[in-house]
Input
Amino acid sequence: MGLQADKSFSDDLIAWQKTHGRHALPWQNTTDAYKIWLSEIMLQQTQVAAVIPYYLKFLQSFPTVEALAAASSEEVMVYWSGLGYYTRARNLHRCATQVVASYGGVFPNDPALLAELPGIGRSTAAAIAAFAYGVRAAILDGNVKRVFARVFGIDTFPGERKTEQHLWQLAESLLPRVGIQSYTQGLMDLGATLCIRSRPACERCPLAHRCVALASGRVAELPIRKPKKATPEKHAVMLVVVDRHQVLLTRRPEHGIWGGLLSLPELEGFTLVAHGAITSGANSAMATLIQQLIAPFGELADYEKLQSFSHGFTHFKLHVVPYRVWLTQRRTAIGQTSHGWVDIDQLHTAALPAPVRKLLQELLRTDDLFAA
Output
């Protein structure tokens, strides 16, 4: 199923990393497990360029694992807002709390113990242990799977259990006796900068001379891609209720999309057609539903349909139809814990999902839309 690993693999990779790898990223040149852990969690499914500004701001607000554990989940979400995959943020906070409670604020150096913490899988645990403590542990993220698939000519889908088990065995066999930090960083750098999915720079790759995919002309084919399935589509109607220079927002449940973030109130029980448009002849029904939702906060004066937009998630695509809503009078809502008013000039610091933030920012640029 592949070639046998040999010591020269790690030697070539380490030598390349020391000369051509990345050495100036904000989370490098440190053995602080907290900083390394934070970067590894942020880098899951997110590009380095997008992570850097979030990482720096996050560290300014939460410089230690104790500071992060002491923060509220709402505070954490504010600094994660826009980075996506919000389960990571919830697990991040849970993990910090557990490290403080169970390990006195010191991350364990055993990859097996690290992997038991919230949000830390086997590969992430190995990266933390290798960079922070010099432990010989194998990583196997998406970039590394691509490198291995090409170099060793693995022609089955890496997501299949049998193939993944083989990849883990291969990753373990390739570990060097010394230089684990440079080797681990080298795998990451190679997959992120040269052995990329499209148009890899094979002419500069330190493993080109041993690459089965390059020798057989199959670089574009490997790794084998997951068979495509039709992307499910979902629809939602969101309300932009503005009154007295404030916007009505709701905190989403901890579980599900945008868990724990603030968002716009959504109508329930309204039928949407395939392209996210409201069913015809439904104005009176729409007015009734809007009034029912905003009843605790005021009386409906008028509403207007805004430009629809779509947002892609990992497993589905969401089509949103937003409506601008005006009130004739505002009420003081009693017993409302999930909804609340936020000053328009405070929206830039609110923990909002990226597409909702973008919508509100676009509306704010309209001269009269948000007039008090």
Residues 87-103 form the longest helix (17 residues). The longest strand covers residues 317-330. The chain has two domains: 7-215, 233-364.
